[in-house]
Write a structure and sequence with these properties.
homodimer, alpha+beta, DNA-binding, 6-stranded antiparallel β-sheet, elongated, Jelly Rolls, 9 helices
Chain lengths: 192, 192
DNA sequence: GTGATTATTTATCATATGATAATTGAATAG
DNA sequence: CTATTCAATTATCATATGATAAATAATCAC
């Protein structure tokens, strides 16, 4: 895989743990680029997560079904890593899917091969440790945002902290992300 | 620090990534044991988390205040690791505290010294990577439990998945953990 | 043990959100 | 461009949960 197409990814790596050239090449060797059209699933429900994704361009979400209702767990924008960690770290099939919301260019890193690289490149293991530690912190922060806040508070916090989501993502997906129905979200937006 | 007092901790390590004796000794050298009485704070709000804890005996919770109201983020029982990761992994002061709910015996591991050990003992870095990956997965699972479930569903799930919490922890702490008021929890428990 | 504090339950009322349906508006395929 | 589907809003009604207060019950200090 040509390293120039991985420039954005390597830029992200530098923020966590800069890699020696050999390590970058090793990652390039197990990576590939795919383009995915809007509304397509990048990974379907029931599939075991064996790829760590990075978004060069586009938007994605992780979603699942609860009692037949589509629930968005999270959104992902450019220059971010996506993985269904509850599958990636356990080896179990995921009940969640990854869907593309805007035509996307995505880097896929083969997870099993990456985990093997951990043995020969401690810098790579450290890099991904730090990446997922940061993601973990985000997730803890998210719980705080949900617990004991009203729907309106959650909407306003989103407006404040991640207005891009509201600008670029259909509201029906935002509603379940906030833990409310689309109709409630519409009502809250209409207030004042 | 005498390794025999760390037997439970090393037992936990074996589940994730068994350590060579030298590595166990290195961890023992930066660990200490403390006993903490019920209702005492192990770590206060505003303190930067520089210690990773392990519970030999007792129960703890992480809590914080929202608009003056005490909210429980999580409970921790015997043989589990506790850390306020949003502080540990960022180096920022935590807005959360760790409180002991039953007289406890706790192992404290000096975090900065532990992170230094990562350089000389890749097995230790891997061990803690896996420990926190598992904790991350738990946290993702938790979000799913909160999003789009009614208070009654959340209570029943807790009764199913972690009945110990309801047996050993005051309900006022459980209520905020479930994201509801104590009065609502009491009402839900009274149903049927 | 006794009184004082704290936790839990019960009751009443107010309100935010869900469910459903109808309407309007936007996106898409042909 | 038009028709069709899909997304977003608005309205009405039902209900779960919050807020407050009062009554028990349990725990704790002395």
């Amino acid at each position: 895989m040509d390293k120039t197409e991985l420039a954005q990814l390597f830029q992200l790596f530098k923020k966590y743990n800069a890699l020696p050239v050999k390590a970058e090449e090793a990652i390039a060797a197990i990576s590939s680029i795919i383009t995915v059209k809007k509304n397509k699933d990048l990974q379907p429900i029931g599939h075991t997560c064996k790829t760590i994704y990075f978004i060069n361009k586009g938007i994605a979400r992780i979603y699942y079904f609860k009692d037949g209702i589509d629930i968005t767990e999270n959104f992902f924008f450019e220059n971010n890593i996506i993985a269904r960690v509850e599958s990636l770290f356990t080896g179990k099939p995921s009940r969640k899917a990854i869907q593309i919301l805007e035509d996307a260019e995505i880097v896929g890193i083969n997870a099993n091969q990456l985990f093997k690289l951990y043995d020969s490149f401690p810098e790579i293991e450290r890099l991904f440790r730090k990446i997922f530690e940061a993601a973990y912190v985000e997730t803890v922060h998210r719980i705080e945002g949900i617990q004991f806040h009203t729907a309106e508070e959650r909407y306003k916090a989103l407006l404040q902290e991640a207005p891009d989501i509201l600008k670029r993502v259909p509201l029906k997906y935002v509603a379940s992300y906030l833990g409310i129905t689309q109709v409630s979200l519409s009502r809250i937006r209409g207030l004042k």
